[in-house]
Design brief:
Helix content: 40-55%
Number of domains: 2
Distance between the termini: 63 Å
Pfam families: PBP_like_2 (PF12849)
CATH superfamily of the largest domain: Periplasmic binding protein-like II
Radius of gyration: 23 Å
GO molecular function, one term: phosphate ion binding
Strand order of the largest sheet: 2-1-3-12-4-8-6-7
CATH class of the largest domain: Alpha Beta
Order of helices and strands: HHEHEHEHEEHHEHEHEHEHEEEHHH
CATH topology of the largest domain: D-Maltodextrin-Binding Protein, domain 2
InterPro entries: ABC_phos-bd_PstS (IPR005673), PBP_domain (IPR024370), Phosphate-bind_PstS (IPR050962)
Family: Belongs to the PstS family.
Number of helices: 14
Strand content: 15-25%
Protein name: Phosphate-binding protein
Structural class: alpha/beta
Largest sheet: 8 strands, mixed
């Protein structure tokens, strides 16, 4: 009798322990504070369980692009849940600040929405010692044009009209150029409040590349990280621009789709000249990114994007965020952790969680090269 009672108590304790463990796993997988959406508890927990922690240890500091913040938050949460004793600290600042921090040697890797410039590569050689900084495409997605216009739920614009809006040439929402693209929509006689990034931003540069390519007669500025046009209002980070658009009637601004999704901000459909206007979705961005070509040399995997595509369902205003690392000469104390963490981000599981967060996975053919390059870092 005593033995049976002991067995029953032991079974009860084990059952309670199993329930407790399941609750802990559920909490790790579902307590999402990123605001960017998730793929659900089951998938995130599975993703974390498939992480290869390798020889990762200690703290890894990284910084840069705010465009990938919501993706990075998901990756960090899953990775740290799987790799006990490892801390990943990603500071979502801006692409420009991330590259500066990388070249100063204060971070293990940087996130940037634009590939390194030649002068930035030259600077990286001082820090990388035996190598140089390279670009690893890790996150894709649409740059959404968000708006707030009371009484208007759906809006279509094209590149020339967007260029004139952000260049302060079109100032009212009922301008004939906007009305022509939105037949049947009652547009108010209201001032346009255009918001842009206040700091150097790869998202700004990608918008500039798109406008320069798709509306060359209306956007005469070089595609730089610093906002080039007069007028408009500035806000800090993609989150800051999204917050302003969310609350200001008559506002328009640009930010990654994850910010629009998390805050229920309506986004502009883009008239590319194709059969129908294209919505800003992860799937439509993937169609545009899939046509990208690798323009980098050696281990550098910088991409050449086609901003003028008219392919059916391809959303042309896209960006790719790169993780910037040394091809060789990475710091020994963080190298193993950099390789382990980025390997997870580039894995099937790491890429799979991007879509529901408003991002687009990197095309498989390109991503295979990313994984190979991560494995060769030294």
């Amino acid at each position: 009798m005593k033995l049976q009672r002991k067995n029953r108590l032991r079974a009860t304790a084990l059952g309670a322990l199993a329930v407790s463990g399941a609750l802990v796993l559920t909490a790790c997988g579902s307590d999402d504070n990123t605001g960017g959406g998730t793929t659900g508890t089951g998938e995130k927990t599975t993703a974390a369980s498939n992480v290869d922690c390798g020889k990762a240890k200690g703290q890894l500091r990284a910084s840069g692009s705010s465009a990938q913040k919501n993706a990075m938050d998901l990756w960090v949460k899953n990775y740290m849940a799987a790799c006990s004793g490892v801390e990943i600290n990603y500071n979502s600042s801006s692409s420009g600040e991330g590259i500066v921090a990388f070249n100063q040697g204060t971070v293990g890797f940087a996130g940037s929405d634009s590939a390194l410039k030649p002068e930035e590569v030259a600077d990286s050689k001082k820090m990388c010692k035996t190598g140089q900084g390279i670009n690893l495409p890790m996150v894709g997605g649409p740059v959404a044009i968000g708006f707030k216009l009371d009484g208007v739920d759906s809006l279509t614009l094209d590149a020339p009209t967007l260029a004139k809006i952000f260049d302060s040439k079109i100032k009212k929402w009922n301008d004939p150029a906007i009305a022509k693209l939105n037949d049947g929509v009652e547009l108010p006689d209201k001032a346009i409040q255009a918001f842009h990034r206040s700091e150097d931003s790869g998202t700004t540069q990608n918008l500039g590349k798109y406008l320069g390519a798709a509306a060359p007669n209306d956007w005469k500025y070089e595609a730089e990280k610093k906002w080039p046009a007069p007028g408009g209002q500035a806000a800090s980070g993609s989150s800051g621009v999204a917050a302003q658009v969310k609350q200001v009637d008559g506002a328009i601004g640009y930010f990654e789709l994850s910010y629009a999704k998390s805050q229920s901000i309506p986004t502009v459909d883009i008239n590319t000249g194709g059969a129908a206007p294209v919505k800003a979705t992860s799937e439509n961005a993937s169609k545009a990114i899939a046509a990208a070509k690798i323009k980098g040399t050696g281990k550098d995997l910088a991409l050449d994007l086609d901003y003028t595509t008219k392919a059916e369902g391809a959303y042309p205003l896209v960006l790719v965020t790169y993780e910037v690392v040394c091809d060789s000469g990475n710091k020994p104390e963080t190298l193993d952790t950099v390789k382990s963490f980025l390997s997870y981000a580039a894995s099937d599981d790491g890429q799979k969680i991007l879509t529901d967060a408003g991002y687009a996975p990197i095309p498989a053919e390109i991503n295979a090269k990313v994984r190979e390059t991560i494995g060769s870092l030294s």
